Amino acid sequence: MSCSEMTDLAKHEFDRQQKVVDTLLTAHSILRERYERRATCLTLLIMAFSVTATAVAFISDKSVARLGPFSARVQIWVGLLTCAIFFLSIIDLQVEWRRKAWAHNEATQRLADLKAKYRRGHDDAVTAQSDFDLTTEYEQTMDALAALRVPIKDAQFTRLKARHWRKVEVSKRISARPQRPRLLHRLDILREGLGKPTATEDTPQSPDLDPDASPR
Predict the structure, then answer these.
(1) Is 172 inside any structural domain?
(2) 103-136 confidence digits (pLDDT tens)
């Protein structure tokens, strides 16, 4: 597709799509890392109980075994540990943290590819031009994210969106004052957020004018 065919995309729509993609990229990246940590911790816990149960089962010359401050018959310890392993395995199947981490990683990869296409686009005061049909690419990516079955709830999306814009603001401040520690930049943003809102911040913006009002 030639650049001249992309002049139909208005700049405000180009900016809106780009901001939504950038926000969703941060959101899915955070959720991917969160579910990876949870899945890893649950797997390690199951492995720890399995190793402990195996070690206790090998105690054949003692009728009573002690684990920490507790003592009981070996058969009871093996039974309790086996029940705990079985229960944690059921939790692992139900919460699907490993699958969710994979799905969010897939979403991150798709959004990163789409973001790269927006970066290769050119825009002026009115229109945007690109070698790609960005609107079609955008819609196809959103459909692909929906097919992954990892929707972001509204309340969760609001918190993730706030984290994204804090990250953007910290990045801007570090670029402006790289010698200042990152922690102090974050504290500055927190202090400003707790202050009295300005007239611009106090005025609600119309959803039609807010380029980040909806992920679609």
Answers:
(1) yes
(2) 999 999 999 999 998 888 777 767 777 778 888 9
Closest CA to 29 of 112, 140, 113: 112
Q: Reduced to 3 states, what is the DSSP secondary structure of residue 159?
A: helix
CA distances from 29 to 10, 25, 68, 183 (A): 29, 6, 39, 21
Please tell me whether residues 84 and 183 are part of one structural domain: no
Rounded Cα distance between 17 and 1, Å, is 19
Number of domains in the chain: 2
Long-range contacts of 153-160 (CB under 8 A, 24+ apart): 157/27, 157/215, 160/23, 160/26, 160/27, 160/30, 160/31
Domain housing 63: 3-152
pTM: 0.76
